[in-house]
Amino acid sequence: MVCSRVPLLPHRPLVERFPSIKKMQTKSLATPRFSPIPISYRQSCPISYKPTLVIRCHAVESSRTSDSISYPPESDLFVSPAVSSGKTGAYPGGMGLHTGRDPSVKKPEWLRQRAPQGEKFARLQDSLSRLKLNTVCVEAQCPNIGECWNGGGGAGGEGDGIATATIMLLGDTCTRGCRFCAVKTSRNPAPPDTMEPENTAAAIASWGVDYVVLTSVDRDDLPDGGSGHFAQTVKALKTLKPKILVECLTSDFQGDLAAVYKLVHSGLDVFAHNIETVKRLQRIVRDPRAGYEQSLSVLKYAKHCKEGMVTKSSIMLGLGESDDEVKETMADLRAIGVDILTLGQYLQPTPLHLTVKEYVTPEKFSFWRDYGESIGFSYVASGPLVRSSYRAGELFVKNYLSGKKDENAACN
Question: 118-170: per-residue pLDDT in tens?
Fold first, then answer.
């Protein structure tokens, strides 16, 4: 609808209605003299209003015109240059140099899981929701969520054991952006919940479990990387339930050994930190703030700053690593005294994440288990669906720690 009091202006090109634009066209982009913000122009006009001119444009070479600019079809926006040019290599179809789906690599049958269901699963899901607790099971899209939350036995609720879940502290948003991880990221996540340590401890104590895994997102925005918050949770849990066994799967705290010391001496039983992949692939797989040597230094310090501390790490397979590189990584972990190792298949959460280069067979995982135990690891959990906090591994660690405590008691 047009107001009758305002006469319509005859259509004229902008350069005629606003002479300053014509002047601007003659200026070189190399020596701009015009502000990029909206500019108001006063001009004699049959009506009394002050028109505001807003110019939005793409910066292009002066020799090019808008008619010569071509844009790709919407369907081609997520096609890698190799595919669009017809130069398809070993891993086409990506959304970047290291990401995207590889149509030639099909997910094998041994990785197919039923959707989680069952009464125990639903009960634990409801409990976690009511208590507003985050779990790595959900945030990282773990394929074993049905088995663990049902107490073992499978995703359908056939388990007859105690349900387990890995609690994620310090919120659900990470300050790092590793290319394999499905956890959401932000440079400035919300501040930690000051009541989380007490609430988490009370919730876990009420579940009646005797082994729990606590983990967290990376919080590089905090002075100690969240180590103090972690330590408060362990202390609160040990106060409510002194005999519970606590495993902490931590970040590297940016190599801050004082933060590592604080957590190791909080009362935890297992210090876990994942090296994730072999040395050559670190910069491709992990955030640049993480690193192979930094992870080794954190694990080494945790092992030696408290007598009897059990340490644990994990390696993902299927990212393009060679057998010799895996052996080298396992040897480096053993050289600093790591006791427990888990190996599992990397699964791509979305096309925006790292491409799966290989689906490692169950037989090969069995080989790595035997090899790891032959070079001195106390326990190796190795399988396509094994994860760093894996229920079967937790049961072994519980028995392993109980055995160590019995040995120490006998010696005393």
Answer: 666 666 667 666 767 776 666 556 666 666 656 655 444 444 455 566 788 99
Give the whole-angstrom CA distance, residue 256 versus residue 223. Answer: 10
Radius of gyration of the chain (CA): 29
Q: Any binding-site annotation on 57? A: no
Amino acid in the structure at residue 23? K
- % of the chain surpassing 70 pLDDT: 59
Residue 389 labeled ligand binder: yes
DSSP string of 370-410, one letter each residue: HHHHHTT-SEEEESTT--SS-HHHHHHHHHHHHHHHHHHHH
Residue 142 annotated in ligand binding: yes
Q: Which of 410, 326, 306, 310 is nearest to 375 (CA)?
A: 326
Which of 404, 402, 387, 403 shows the shortest CA–CA distance to 210?
402
The Cα–Cα gap between 259 and 177 comes to 21
- Say if residue 25 is exposed, middle or buried (CB neighbours under 10 Å; 0-12, 13-18, 19+): exposed
pLDDT digits 0-9 by tens, 241-283: 998 889 999 999 999 999 999 999 999 999 999 999 999 999 9
For helices 257-264 and 292-304, give the axis angle rounded to 10 degrees.
40
Look up residue 72 and give its amino acid: P
**Hey, what amino acid is at 204?**
I
| pTM higher than the cut 0.85 | no
Please report the domains of the chain, with CATH numbers, ordered by start residue.
Answer: 119-411 (3.20.20.70)
For the segment 345-372, the average pLDDT, to the nearest whole number, is 93
Return the DSSP state at 4. T
CA atoms within 13 A on the CB side of 165: 30
* Helix/strand/coil for 21: helix
Residue 321: Cβ-neighbour burial (10 angstroms; 0-12, 13-18, 19+): buried
178 is in an annotated binding site: yes
